[in-house]
Amino acid sequence: MNYKRLFINIFIPLIIGGIVALIMIPFNDYKNLNQPILAPPAFIFPVVWSILYVLMGISAYLISKKNSIPFVYYVQLFVNALWSIFFFVFKWRLFAFIWLILLAILIIVMIIKFMKIDKLAAYLQIPYLLWVLFAGYLNISIYLLN
Fold first, then answer.
1. What is the three-state SS of the chain?
2. Which of 83, 72, 7 is nearest to 45 (CA)?
3. Which domain covers residue 100, as residue numbers?
4. What confidence score (pLDDT) does residue 3 get?
5. CB 21 within 8 A of CB 13
6. How would residue 28 be classed by pLDDT, with cut points 50, 70 and 90?
7. Is 30 among the domain residues?
């Protein structure tokens, strides 16, 4: 096992998520929004995202051991980062929902590409896809309720 490569692969999504979190802190109005029934408390989000970013990194590491990481992995990281900015900073709630649909499609494409290289790497992305679909429900519900 190459621990340095594993660390780098986990560090990349964590640092991107951390930077975005710092950018959106002054703009985060989640607690003040009318919430849908299944909305979790705000403290859940950083915990879940941290876990998902670690899973992404492990998945990327597994792929990197056998092949180069497909470009779609980096594209979806970029699209993921922009969603929070669209939703919280610019408050473009409907656009952010459409952006999440793009993100979900990219994740599905990534899972398919990963499946051809390493099944475990692909399976590690499924919680991420499920969370993004749930985020889509929250996003569109908040748009409609506010």
1. CCHHHHHHHHHHHHHHHHHHHHHHHHHCCHHHCCCCCCCCCCCHHHHHHHHHHHHHHHHHHHHHHHCCCCHHHHHHHHHHHHHHHHHHHCCCHHHHHHHHHHHHHHHHHHHHHHHHHCHHHHHCCHHHHHHHHHHHHHHHHHHHHC
2. 83
3. 3-24+44-145
4. 96
5. no
6. confident
7. no
> Does some domain include residue 34?
no
Take residue 58 and report the two structure tokens written for it: 């492990």
Total domains present in the chain: 1
The answer to whether residue 31 is domain-embedded is no
On whether the CB atoms of residues 117 and 16 are closer than 8 A, the answer is no
Is 29 a domain residue?
no
> For residue range 91-102, what is the model confidence (pLDDT) as tens digits?
999 999 999 999
CA dist 103 and 136 (Å) reads 10
What is the C-alpha separation between 114 and 130, in angstroms, rounded?
A: 17
Amino acid found at 11: F
Residue 108 pLDDT class (50, 70, 90 cuts): very high
